[in-house]
Amino acid sequence: MNFDGTQTIIGKGAQADVLGYKGFAYKVYRPSYPVEWIEFEKKQQIEACRAGLTDIRYYDTDDPHIVKMDLIEGDTLEKKMLEGFEGGFDLLAAMYRKIHAADTSDLKIPHLTDTAGIGLTEEEKAEIIPLIGKLSEKFSSCLCHLDMHFLNVMLPFDGGEPVIIDWINARIAPAVFDYARTYVVLKECAPEVLGLFEKAVATDIGSLGVSDADFADAVHVCTVIRRMEKRS
Q1: What is the CATH number of domain 8-71?
Q2: Superfamily assignment of 75-231 in CATH?
Q3: DSSP 8-state code for residue 218
Q4: Residue 139, CA distances (Å) to 80, 112, 152, 200, 225 in order
Q5: Which residues neighbour 227 within 8 Å (Cβ) at sequence distance 6 or greater?
Q6: Are 47 and 107 in contact (CB under 8 A)?
Q7: I want to staple 200 with a disulfide (CB 3.0 to 4.6 A). Which of 5, 89, 125, 207 is the partner?
């Protein structure tokens, strides 16, 4: 696929850039990024749509490393918060509740227990697989986004409902892992706001019956997985 020069960069990530072009968004992956992972991401997006959690569709192009997407005319939650929006943490908490309430009975989303060991060393697997099993036995599972942060929530300019993006990490798992994943990301990228995040989600985490020790176990799991992602 060729662009005519009128495209604009609207997002940049470790594995892909997102371009705005002729009324659509195009995710342009690095040439080295495995095509099968791109296909997996597209399937994840389909399932998120089926769950009623997004209406953003992905479309094939003639280049397997370029995916066409519906364009969201809006700003990231991060940008709005930097501009002074004070409801960001409460909005993030509401997005968790929406995701975790989704009907998973017919969703073709992998379980965390089935995929967590991918890319890990044997030592890392020995560290976290038992913890995932323990928490999965203790708490009921639901749909988890597993990469919820302020760059993955879009606020449309027209005042429409917030849009949650980037569903590739979504798994069926106890909700504690969703909160723990965000905790790990914020601790790495914005430790100064951890207290605000914890305050915003404390009631919801407490309602699950999650103890401090349970949360620490989930944070350890997410820390190991995050470490693996960064070296990939």
Answers
A1: 3.30.200.20
A2: Aminoglycoside phosphotransferase (APH), C-terminal lobe (3.90.1200.10)
A3: H
A4: 34, 13, 26, 21, 20
A5: none
A6: yes
A7: 89
